[in-house]
Amino acid sequence: MGANLAAANFKLDIDADGIALVTWDRTGRSMNVIDASTIEELSTLVETIAGDAAIKGAVVTSGKETFSAGADLTMLQALMRAYDDKMQREGETVAVTFLFEESRKLSQLYRRIETCGKPFVAAINGTALGGGLELCLACHHRVAADNGKTRLGLPEVKVGLFPGAGGTQRVARMMPPADALQFLLKGDPVGLDRAKALKLVDAVVPAADLIRTAKDWAKANPAAKAPWDTDGFRLPGGPVYSKAGMMTFPAANALYRRETYDNYPAARAIMQVVYEGLQLPMDRALAVEQRYFASVLRSPQAAAMTRSLFVSMQALNKGARRPANVLPSKLKRIGVIGAGFMGAGIASVSSQAGLEVVLIDRDRASADKGKATVEKSLTAQVERGRMVAERRDAALARIEATADYAALKGVDLIVEAVFEDRKVKAEATAKAQAVMPDIVFGSNTSTLPITSLADTAKDATRFIGIHFFSPVERMMLVEIILGKKTGDVALSTALDFVRAIGKTPIVVNDTRGFYANRCVLNYIQEGHLMLLEGIPSAMIENVARMAGMPVGPLSLCDEVAIDLCLKIAKATEADLGPQAVDQGQKKLLEDMVEARGRLGRKNGKGFYDYPQGAPKRLWPGLAALQPKTLSREQIEAIDVQEMKARFLVVQALEAARTFEEGVITDVREADVGSILGFGFAPYSGGTLSYIDMMGSKRFVELCLRLEKYGPRFAPSKLLLDMAAKNESFYGRFAPGKTAA
User: Fold this and answer.
1) Could you tell me if residue 305 is inside a domain?
2) This prediction's pTM
């Protein structure tokens, strides 16, 4: 190999001083990702650098705007398919050995970089995540270009994995274990200031000086070694079995269990590999890390989370449901009608994404108040250091607050977010379409059917539901709802809009409650029904979190608003009859709202009290509303596992019904939507993955056992059929197929 090499992933240039510049620039991809070809090419380059006496050291950088997004996790899916095949053909011993050896290749490559005898410097020119950051950590020195957008992180735990290419061991040797565990378990990327404080990077320099600075260090340190490979190395936090160590690990274990309830094998593995690895030399520690990594790869939780939160979510974000026959929309300016809490949120995320926004309300004062809400929210981000003031000011400048519908002239899309009332929505639609009659019109509604709302539109084919979740800024899911006449142009425009603002869309067909609300209202109802059974409110809330939900059903009801839950119950009863709602639940809501004025968080009084300047606490008066009082012995006899199952099964059952009814038509959207929309136990991979993980036969058996609590647990015809044939959702309805 000569002085210069170009390949699919890397370019190699060697300067007159013998310093190799390895530029990672993956052909045909907007970002550098790690796959089998990356590992193979980089291995060849490392051996070339290590074996050529003329090469004195190497600098690794990126030819993209960012350094690397990490591993392409479809590579791991392919590895697991090969593992399953070997399990069937050659048995467990051969399959497990194969998985261990294959999954450690990247870790071995990074260790080779670290011990090859030549100095390696990472010149980090932008965001480095996952395996990309692990590559940087394996280099002897890390220099980053000064860039406020750069983020460094190991987010693997968010998709059911953990850093398996040496990340846990290097991070835990660079910083005290408490900091390392927080960095690894939270998985949140950090900016350069924090990265430097944590010693993830050694220097931050102007972008123009990045490569020169990196090369200078390589030339000045020809015998560079990693600190842990030098004699006398001491762990930053001291030995595990020291006073400091004993103050860290027991407390960390308690925090881990409080936050995860031991539902996440990858998070548990992080605790174990850091604790065990810090007691071993580096090579043995890496072997321990790899054994745990191979074990986690085999867990159903990792498979489900990786599929839903990486593969499926990427596909949806890239337009998996977008009609191919419609050209991309060129959205520059949108209209948002309604400057209340939801409308202001939609305006905020749109303006931050670079779109100009016309924010309309019934009068100028109301519109200005909506813009002021945006300003307050963005200013809070500036004060927390999450946004620079210039970006806030630019976003605000893109919002025009007005009461004049004529300002909508020339917008590319209108999103209506007025009060949940047919008459009010019809009036807003008419006023907007008087100005822009042919515009794609989206209604942000959570309760009203889109097909009926479209009756007031000039062209029902251009009318669509765009359902945001509250709070808009934080919630990543948007439900796109198709009315019976909604056309491809409206669907494409809505999906283009959601992509432009960085949210994840799912496409659902029109029905009462759509998809997410149908499932999550069942979760809230289950909490109410448990309360009526006499189960203590604190037990209800705690067991729901043990099951994997982010908040308990009573807390969630407060957030949604108890009076809204009552309104939905009454509307359902009016439309479908008294048998369509649980009368006990309805009475509980009436007692809370009408008799006691407890509306939820919005008025500081709900199932919880919200004292000023203090944490919320369960309202002591709840016990008086329970028609049954259980004895201590009865409470102790409650089956907690069965309670956990009730919370999850009642939601998964509703998801399966919506799939059978054709409300949701893609298994990926059911799973991704359930996690992003209402926080359904992420470790399960989502509602339908939860059923698949258990197996349809076992799930149906569980439903039949739970029917003693009511007919809401009766398995549907589709589930009975799947159980009889021992089928799974992802087997019978592969992504892209429908229930039809």
Assistant:
1) no
2) 0.91
